[in-house]
Amino acid sequence: MTAVAVTVLPRRRLRHVDFVVLAVYWVAIGYLWQSLGTLILPGMVQDLVGPADKGKALSLLEGIGTVMAVVWQPMMGALSDRTRSRFGRRRPFILAGTLGDVVFLAGLALAGSYWLVVVFYFLLQTSSNTAQGPYQGLQPDVVPEDQRGTASGYYGMANLVGVLSGTVVAGVILRIWGPPAAFASIALILVATMLVTVLLVPDRVQPSLSGFPTPGEVVRSTFTTPLQHPNFMWLMGSRLLILMGVVGIQSFTFFFLTDAFFASDRAAATASTTALVGLVVLMAMLATWPAARLSDRVGRRPLIVIGGLVASAGALILLFAGYRGMPEAVLAPVAAVLGVPELVAQILPAGILVGAGLGAFLSVDWAFITDVIPLEQAGLFFGFSNIATAGSGVIARFLAGFLLDHFNAGPRLLQLPGGYPVIFGIFVAWLLMGTLLVLKVRERPR
User: Fold this and answer.
1) End-to-end CA distance of the chain
2) How confident is the model at residue 130 (pLDDT cuts 50, 70, 90)?
3) DSSP 3-state assignment of 416?
4) In sequence order, which residues have a C-beta less than 8 Å from that of residue 76 and are 6 or more positions away?
5) What are the b/e assignments for 358-390, b being 16+ CB within 10 Å?
6) Backbone angles phi, psi at 95, to 5 degrees
7) Around Cβ 84, how many Cβ atoms within 10 Å?
């Protein structure tokens, strides 16, 4: 590509309100995918295909839709790196993608068959990732280097606020008013945060590379350029494995609680899922900010190692959830307050540990990526990082879904339906492997 000489505007120091405005669209992204993936889609899929095939059907749905996310987001980010327009290089993508989200969410809400759900989910992934790649590229455009740790904490916190509200708020809406109202709430939050972003976040950095001459060059450059940066690739491998473990736990919590404890009471299973996943997110929120500040002093890598080990310990609790490991004097009051069986109350520490580990990871994730990439191609590299983000869901749900249905049809293991010890054991292994892999990433001296 031919470089274009440009004058890059200096990045001014950001105030706390600037970080909030810059991060607010993450709230909508977290709300969108958490509410869909954890609460809305599992129930829709089970209603449409029946309980015997729910695991395979959910895996297929996620796989088909997310293939588009993995391919599309990095290409949209790469295009935005080189876009010139009177509105900026990132804003047009964010605006168009969000408006597409609203249309395809309406299609999902009205879909009356499993295959219509698949089609509209695929289209929703396309539109959402049209916005997300350029949005992630917008952030390094305006954040000074010495404020990356602070920015990473804000982004992690905003994402977790979205995930928590997507669990708790969307869960309440779903129980009281049903799926149409839940879909409407997603659309409202997306549009509101999009308007804040495109109207208030400056988008004045000009591209330093000329536009792509052909569509083929977009594909070639997007998927070969990151391979020339080994630190980035090691970090993506670690990110993929850690997120596979966390997303796997979140994705199958509803099925786990239904099959193990609430076989005939979906409302109770939904309430317990909301409580457990909400606890994960709450703990992640509490850990994110102090971990982000600490990373500016001790580095990014130690926080990811600590977070991965803590999350692994939480997943181990789920692996042995069929056994009573705490005295009744402790479990009974907690179970009575929450209105859940004592064995469900016993797995709440799993939520605390997984949440704390996730918070440590998210607190430095954005800053660590920014530290190891060429900033003039931030849209491409952050879009490429979505291969780990979206790919984690594809791999975790695809593999775990088929294993779950297969082993659930057999004998119980560790006092649980047979599929759950199998998939929880796999989630532990992924978390540990991702933790070890980050040791290959070289940090910049501080």
Assistant:
1) 33
2) very high
3) strand
4) 93, 97, 129, 130, 132, 133, 134, 379, 383
5) bbbbbbbbbbbbbbbbebbbbbbbbbbbbbbbb
6) -65, -50
7) 11
Name residue 387's amino acid.
Answer: I
Q: Determine the 3-state secondary structure of 209 from DSSP.
A: strand
In the block, residue with structure tokens 């829709």: 44
Confidence (pTM): 0.80
Q: How many CB atoms lie within 10 A of CB 119?
A: 16
**What average pLDDT score do residues 155-166 get?**
86
Q: Quick: pLDDT tens for 295-328.
A: 877 888 999 999 999 999 999 999 888 887 777 7
Residue 299 φ/ψ region, left for φ over 0, alpha for ψ in the -120 to 50 degree band, beta for the rest: left
User: Residue 316 is which amino acid?
Assistant: L
Q: What is d(CA 35, CA 162) in angstroms, rounded to the nearest whole number?
A: 9
DSSP letter at 110? H
Radius of gyration of the chain (CA): 21
Q: What is the pLDDT of residues 3-23, one digit of tens each?
A: 333 334 456 788 889 999 999
Q: Which of 265-269, 321-325, 398-402, 425-429 is the most confident on average?
A: 425-429
Determine the Cα–Cα distance for residues 12 and 155; give it in Å rounded to an integer: 18
Which pLDDT belongs to residue 255?
A: 85
